[in-house]
Structures are given as C-alpha cells and as structure tokens.
Write a structure and sequence with these properties.
With 383 residues, the chain is of the alpha/beta class. Helix content is 31%, strand content 25%. It contains 10 helices and 17 strands. It has helices at 12-21, 36-46, 55-59, 76-85, 100-113, 127-137, 168-171, 176-192, 325-342, 356-375; strands at 2-7, 26-32, 50-52, 66-69, 89-92, 117-119, 144-152, 196-204, 209-213, 229-233, 239-246, 251-257, 266-273, 277-281, 287-291, 298-301, 379-380. The protein has a 9-stranded mixed beta sheet. Strands 3-2-1-4-5-6 form a 6-stranded parallel beta sheet, sandwiched between helices. Strand 5 (89-92), helix 5 (100-113) and strand 6 form a beta-alpha-beta unit. Helix 1 crosses helix 9. The protein is globular. The protein starts with a strand and ends with a strand.
C-alpha cells in the first residue's frame, strides 16, 4: 500500500480521495486543512485517520509517501515546494503556481529531485479523448490544419456569484482562461500532439463589480433570500476569445466563459484534417463525432471493441456502461501511482498524466494570452 496525504478539503480534495480509494493500493492516511477543527471534521467525514493544520507537521507524518496539493491557487507554489523538499511524490491541482518564475523553479526542483510529479489536467484521460489522440497519431484524419472549441460554464453568470477565484490575489490575474482555458489548451495539445506557440486574445469582464456573500458561500452553493452582500471590484476575466497558432503552422481558436447560461461544464473541441474531422464534448463524454466528406458522419462510442487497439484499455467497461469525469479522474491517479510504484515518470506520454513541465508549459500559454489582451496583438508563447 502507498501512504498518501491530502492538503486542502474543498470541492476537489474529496474528489481526489474518492478516486484514490478506487485504485485499491492507496491508503489515505492524513488530511491537512486551514484549522485543526476543520481538518478533524473533514477527516471524520471522509474516514481519514489523521488530521493536521500545520503543513510542516503534516509532511513529517510517519510513512507518508505522496501528497496531493488541493489548496487555493495562491498556496500552490509554496506548498508544492515544501512537498518536494520533504522528499514526497507530489500531485498538484492546477495551476502549478502563480507566475512563470515560480513555475520554472518548481519544474527544476521536481526534475532534480527524482520524485514523481503531476498536475491535475484530467480531460486527457477520457477514453474518447485518448481515442482522438490515437487517431491523430495514426494519421486517420489526414493532415491536420485547424482546431477549435470552447470551455463554457455558467457558475459566475449572476452579479451575486463570487468566491475566492475572483480575487486576483488568491486566484491569480487570470480567472476564466487560467481556470478552464488551461484545461482546453492541455487537452487540445494532447489530442493533436502539437504545441500552441502564438496567441491573440480578447477578454472581457461582464461584472466589473460583484456582490460577495458576507458569509462566504461555497463555490457551487446557492444563496438564500437572507444572504448579506458587500460589493467587490473584479479585475479577472469572465470570458474570452483566443486565436492560436501551433508549432507545425496549423491554426485554431477557442473561447472560454463562466457566464454562459445553461452550460455547466462544457469543454468541447474539434480537429479538422484533410481526410476527416473529429469532435468531442465533455458533457457527452462517451461519444466521439467523426466527420466525413464523401460518406455519412459517425458517432463512435467508448466500446473497447470499437476503439483503436492502443487505447482500447482506456475504456474500462463494456460498451454502454456509463463512464464519466470520476472515471477519468481515477485513470489519471492510476497513471500517476503506476509511476510512483516504478519510482519514475513513464517513458511514454501517450496515455500518461500531465507533469510539472506540462503544467508550466500551459501556464506560459495563459501568460501569453494575458499579455496579448493587454497589448492587443499576437504574442509568442515563451517558456
């Protein structure tokens, strides 16, 4: 058994624990939270035996081998640094940190440590995304020349929608692009096997001032009629549109929005080639649309018997058995802990998890997008 600890118990921490427990060879031994009372309450709720409120003390827990950093964004860099220096394998929520100087430092620390390091870009783990990437590798679409898509949500649609991610000090100078656009960028690069090298962006703040709940309502929680608010200035984008250029000369575009009514978590992408196109939507994750010029279009399902042989194992159940986000999350953890058992990252990145290097590279895209919006011009991605 591998002994694992979790730092942070908001929305995503319990999701990590659930995925880890499905692996069968992971023992979640400790939780660390912002206060001892909160840590103990969450530990009891999640059936974890030990609770801490001090990260240094937590990292000294006997037998601890790997740590998941599930804290708010502004804490990622310092805690990731502590985990590595404590000699523990580290799996971090994204973003890896808050700026590129920190990102470069963390990549260097992680790679020199010899520890296994990962970042939570989960969408590459869906079976149909793996199928899409396989089809591109085997040139089943022909020559690629464009890619487009979007990531749309509605949880920030109303003026009274507010949480720590809106605060640039805690969430970073970018919100929609860094929070969800980063997922789209990682996924499209994984599918196409190409890197985004130039961007042109136009971003927008829909609510320059938001009404924040004085009681600090949960991220996805509903407000009641008695909620009291205070006005807070907003400096992070609610939506944006980005033109992109890939390293092979192909081009594309994507949009992000956290203010699109009715769109709950819709990451969608389309890749166009000289022989065929493909399209995938995270809200209908078991279907991959294949477009043709001279024959009927197709809808491929995640039936292992219908998928490319190199990725058929990514669909764990027979066709028709629903697999979704929690299953992709489990797959991501499985790849990470296979590397932990082997003591090194896997040699092939075809089905592997995102590393600190991948996290830093996507951060460099977000940085370029923010610069492009400020300066209203094409900007090269630099890492």
């Amino acid at each position: 058994m591998i002994n694992v600890g979790i730092i942070g118990t908001g929305f995503i921490g319990p999701a990590h624990i659930e995925a880890l427990r499905r692996l069968g060879n992971i023992n979640v031994v400790a939780i660390c939270d912002s206060s001892q009372s909160a840590a103990e309450a969450h530990a009891a709720q999640l059936n974890v035996p030990h609770a801490y409120s001090d990260v240094t003390e937590f990292l000294q827990h006997e037998g601890l081998q790997a740590v998941h950093n599930c804290t708010p964004n502004h804490l990622h860099a310092s805690i990731n640094r502590q985990i590595i220096k404590a000699g523990k394998h580290v799996f971090s929520e994204k973003p890896l940190c808050m700026n590129m100087d920190e990102a470069r430092e963390l990549v260097t620390l992680a790679e020199e440590s010899g520890l296994v390091h990962g970042v939570s870009f989960v969408y590459r783990q869906f079976a149909m995304v793996q199928q899409a990437a396989s089809m591109v590798r085997y040139q089943q679409l022909g020559r690629l020349f464009s890619a487009q898509g979007s990531y749309l949500q509605d949880w920030m649609l109303e003026e009274t929608d507010y949480n720590w991610r809106v605060d640039a000090v805690k969430g970073g100078v970018s919100r929609a692009v860094a929070d969800i656009g980063s997922h789209w960028c990682d996924t499209i690069q994984f599918v196409t096997g190409r890197k985004i090298v130039e961007v042109m962006a136009d971003l927008s703040i829909v609510w320059p001032t938001r009404k924040a709940s004085v009681a600090n309502a949960a991220t996805f929680g509903a407000q009641d009629d008695d909620t009291q608010y205070e006005s807070r200035e907003v400096t992070t984008e609610d939506m944006g549109f980005v033109l992109i250029r890939f390293d092979d000369g192909s081009k594309g575009s994507f949009s992000v929005s956290q203010v699109s009514a009715g769109r709950k978590n819709r990451l969608s992408l389309e890749v166009n080639g000289s022989q065929a196109s493909l399209s995938w939507d995270q809200e209908t994750p078991q279907q991959l649309w294949l477009g043709h010029r001279h024959k009927a279009n197709q809808l491929l399902s995640d039936d292992p018997s219908l998928m490319n042989p190199d990725v058929a194992h990514c669909a764990r159940f027979p066709g028709g058995h629903i697999e979704g986000w929690p299953d992709a999350f489990r797959a991501m953890m499985q790849h990470f802990y296979q590397a932990v058992e082997e003591g090194k990252p896997p040699a092939s990145q075809d089905t592997a998890f995102a590393t600190f290097l991948d996290g830093a590279q996507v951060m460099s895209i977000v940085d370029a997008i923010m610069q492009s919006h400020r300066e209203q011009r094409w900007v090269s991605v630099k890492f």
